[in-house]
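Technical appendix A lists one of the benchmark inputs used to test multi-chain prediction within the project. The record comprises two sequence entries:
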Amino acid sequence: MIVTISREFGSGGRELGKRLSEELEVPCYDSTILKILSEEQGLDPQYLSHISEKSIQASYPLTIGHRFSLAPDYGMDQAVKVAVEQRKVIEGLAARGDCIIIGRCADVILRDRRPFNIFVYANKEAKLERCIRRAPEGERLSPAEMERYMRRIDRDRAQHRAFFTDAKWGAKESYHLCIDTSGVEIRQIVPPLAAYVRTWCAARG
Amino acid sequence: MIVTISREFGSGGRELGKRLSEELEVPCYDSTILKILSEEQGLDPQYLSHISEKSIQASYPLTIGHRFSLAPDYGMDQAVKVAVEQRKVIEGLAARGDCIIIGRCADVILRDRRPFNIFVYANKEAKLERCIRRAPEGERLSPAEMERYMRRIDRDRAQHRAFFTDAKWGAKESYHLCIDTSGVEIRQIVPPLAAYVRTWCAARG
């Protein structure tokens, strides 16, 4: 049973993954993947986080499309290298056994293992409310600032996915179940969701 | 508990609705809505079915965009009249109590009752297989013919929705749960789905 979770920023996808992990009693990996990678490769975790989560375009705005045919670009090269290494970590984790993986194009990377792919989304109001509620004291953004920030993160995720895969981020056709979390508590919907995932995985054989 | 189901042709949305209705023990309405309407209005059921399920554009290709400013067009007028009457029947059914309504823009019509809106989809292969398996003896289309037919029905549904509502057909943002039925038996996924719907409706209050 391999479950992947993609999500809009602020939709509660990470919380859903963590709770689903407890309910299904399987490990859940998210930024832990980068931690494993930073330990394996001796790289700075913050650098890894920057290079793997930003969109390629956002990180290297001057090189894409301009110097593609020139000598290999260091930043570009590093981003692809990190993606390749991250892919290996994800494949290794899935090979170990049942698990949930949040983000990182795991649904595409693990396609051959036929994972159950979930996309989590919510309406703008619900996402804003969640983000503002969760922001650490002293880091509160105004609703307008938060909305811009949310949009940027989602755009980065979509661009990152478009660069490394052929599956469109957030298009329902890429997922087995798309879940709107607006107006409900995630802890309440997780138990029946876990039953759905269990049944689907057993039915699919 | 009001549940609406929109679906791609061949995805098994109707079967899912019927089975969910048994599981939740609430009535399920689909083409029965037209039957009620035909009895109420003394109209031919086949005519009603034609006028309500085709896209407006497909039914009246010469009038839209060309004669809009001229005298009211009979066909156009009738289509809108049927949509208005159908809307009243749907509102009446929902007012009676818990139910499941398949198609007919019920998610938009019943918006104020805050229904749980499901969209059912599947990949092309799964839909083709289902449609060909279900076709009556002697009415078998070739896979290519069936694919064209499937696309036409879905296009009609999308256009019908676009004409009568502001919500995009099949866009996940319009639904609370989008379900891919490819590769699984619908009877197997319905029990956990029913639990999810029950939980969501209770959690939403």
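Residues 119 and 170 of chain B are 7 Å apart (CA to CA). Chain B touches chain A through 29 residues (CB under 8 Å). Comparable benchmark entries are summarised in Table A2.
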